[in-house]
Structures are given as structure tokens and as C-alpha cells.
Amino acid sequence: MQDQKLEPIAPDEAVSLYLQDRENELANGTIKSYRHKLTRFVEWCDQEEIENLNTLSGRDILRFKQSRSNVLNSVSLKGQMDTLRSFIRWCESIDGVEQDLHNKVMSPTLSQGDRERDILIDSEIAKDILEHLSRFEYASLHHALLTLLWRCGARSGTVRSFDLRDYERENQRLEAKHRPETPLKNKKRGERLIALSSDVCQVLNDYIDHNREKVTNEPGRKPLLTTQFGRISKSTIRETCYRWTHPCQYNGGECPHSRDMDECQALNPPKKAPSLCPSSRSPHAWRRGAITHHLTEDVPIEVVSDRMNVSRDVLDQHYDRRSEEVKVEQRREYLSNI
After folding, report:
1. How far apart are CA 202 and CA 134, in angstroms?
2. Which residues neighbour 204 within 8 Å (Cβ) at sequence distance 6 or greater?
3. Which residues belong to any copy of the Tyr recombinase domain (predicted)?
């Protein structure tokens, strides 16, 4: 009886409608990524002569997964299947596939090494967090800190090292300086000028003018980011990153992990344990996500390398989490203009 309620729809039509439905809520880079991944699914359906998604089964999805596992590594395959699951769930909402079919979309289990390489802040999550802070904690320390981490893609130690004098309002830039008390990871090689956009400068200007704690325990220096005790600490940066990646902090109080908000230890953690939420992410995950986001938005890799102070080899190995399909389509766009 359930099948009788389904309305016939071709795979390519369903994908087109899905992307059109999501384009107002997702960044352009995310839509491009979804399009690349789902195009592979449409091509597979065409090869298998699946013309109507009403007939799609769990066994079909397994066969698609197996075909993709021959050309993708485990991290990319997981991204492929996670995107397909989201698409199938949407198809259920328009009566295009059988109900609960998305539960038959199985992603691979990643090894610990794969998980560590793949942990990053998704651009949409970062956008939601910063929009929430802009509305409810505008120009606060947390807002200024996370804005710099995301928009500059800098290491937490670099952001912590900034002094007031390193910020040039008129020229809209920050200067990263290696100093003995606040060293940069790459020391003198880490020194650089970081260009800022007008909206980032507006947040910094308002933070400095209205909310910055005018205290310091460092003779001759005035830190940019401060608490009542002086320069922001490494632990405060870490705890801020963990806290604001708890989904309940920015998505209207809903917990995706079905936890009781009154009893959740991630919200009321034991001392020094702010990362108990499965969704919480460290400062390094913010950096990895920012770098991947810049690359996905077609910022040249040489610009990202210089801005984030990371070599091309290290960037490729540890930070760039774009799938191979996104990379090849981006190269195609460049080549089409030659």
C-alpha cells in the first residue's frame, strides 16, 4: 500500500529539485559539493537503468556504495554516502522513495586516523554559530575570537598573540608578529600581514571600543583579546571553541544527540571537561574547516598557503578536506575559460 502513495520521479529531476530547495539555506560551495556527489549517483542510476526512484531499494544503494568504494578513499566515500542519505531523506518528504529508505544508506566506519584527519568545522555550522553570536552576543570576546579563527584560518596561538598595535583599522589588516612571550609556531617565518574584510573589522572595532577588557599583566603590551585576568588564555580559546560547537548553543536549544539538557554533562561539565558533546570541536578543527572552506570557494591555494602560514605539502596532507570530485570540477571550471 505504501508504494501506491509514491509519485514517479526521475533521479536527475529529483536531484535538481533537491539542490534548488536547499540553495537558499546552504553556501554556494556546499551546493557545488552536493551537486558533484549526487551527479555520480545520477550517472550510476542511468547505467543501471533506474529511471524512477520509486523503485530504489536498499540493495541498490549498497551496490552504488560498492561501485564508489572502488574509486574513493574511506573519508571521501563517507562524504558521498552522507550526502546521499540526506538526499534520500528529502526524497521521502516528497513521496519520491519508500519511507525510511535513508536508514539503509550505510556510511563506512572510519579508522581513528581517518577521523582525526577529517574532523573540521563545516562551513554551514560556522556560519550558523557566527550568525547566532552576531544576533545575541555581538562584538563579545567570543564573537571576536571565533570570527578571527574562522575568517583568518589562523592557529589559536597566532590569534592569542595579537596586540592592539597589531591591528591597523585604517588599512584593515592584522600583523602576526613572533615575540618571545607569545611565539608563533613557525617563529619569524610565521610573521605576515593578514588582510581583513570590512565586516570582520566592524566586529573588531566594536569589540575594542565597547567590550574589550582594558587590563593586562604584560608590561609594555596591550593584548587584543582579553579577559578580566589579562591576555586570553589557551584554555579559554579551547573551551570557547568546544562550547560554541555544541549544537544546542546555536540551533534553538535542540540536542541532536537526544540528551536531557538538564543533565547533559557537556553543558554542566566536570572541571576541565568541556568537550563531552559528540559535536564539540577544537580550535584546530576550526582552522582545518576554514582552510577547506577557502579552497572550496576557489581561493587560490597559494593565497591560502600564505594567509594561513602553511606549506603546500602540509596543506595537502593535513588540512585540505575537499573530495577529489570537488577538486576535479574546480579544475574543470578553470580550464573551460582557457
Report:
1. 11
2. 144, 147, 148, 167, 196, 224
3. 115-332
| Phi, psi torsion values for 320, nearest 5 degrees | -75, 110
Least confident of 139-153, 157-171, 317-331: 317-331
Integer Cα distance of 324 and 115 in angstroms: 18
**Where along the chain do its domains lie?**
3-107, 118-245+281-338
Cβ atoms of 329 and 36 closer than 8 Å:
yes
Give the separation between CA 73 and CA 70, rounded to whole angstroms: 8
CATH code given to domain 118-245+281-338:
1.10.443.10
Q: Which CATH superfamily is domain 3-107 in?
A: Tyrosine recombinase, N-terminal domain (1.10.150.130)
State the distance between the two ends of the chain, measured CA to CA, in whole angstroms: 55
CA distance 149 to 155: 7
Element (H, E) at 65: helix 58-69
Q: Specify the residue for cell string 573551460.
A: 336
Higher pLDDT, 97 or 118: 97
Cell of 183: 611565539
**Cell numbers at 47, concatenated:** 547505467
Look up residue 174 and give its DSSP letter: E
Distances (CA, A) of 105 to 47, 63, 69, 81: 20, 11, 14, 7
DSSP-derived secondary structure letter, 246? S
Q: Angle 330-200-233 (CA atoms, 0-180°, nearest 5)?
A: 105
114 is written with which cell numbers? 581517518
pLDDT band for 336, please (50, 70, 90 cuts): low
Confidence bin at 272 (pLDDT 50/70/90)? very low
Angle at 259 between CA 245 and CA 235, to 5 degrees: 35
Buried-state track 311-334, b at ≥16 Cβ within 10 A, e below 16: eeeebeeebbbbbebbeebbeeee
Judged against a pLDDT cut of 70, whether residue 110 lies above it is answered with: no
Per the prediction, the chain carries an average pLDDT of 84
pLDDT of 51 reads 95
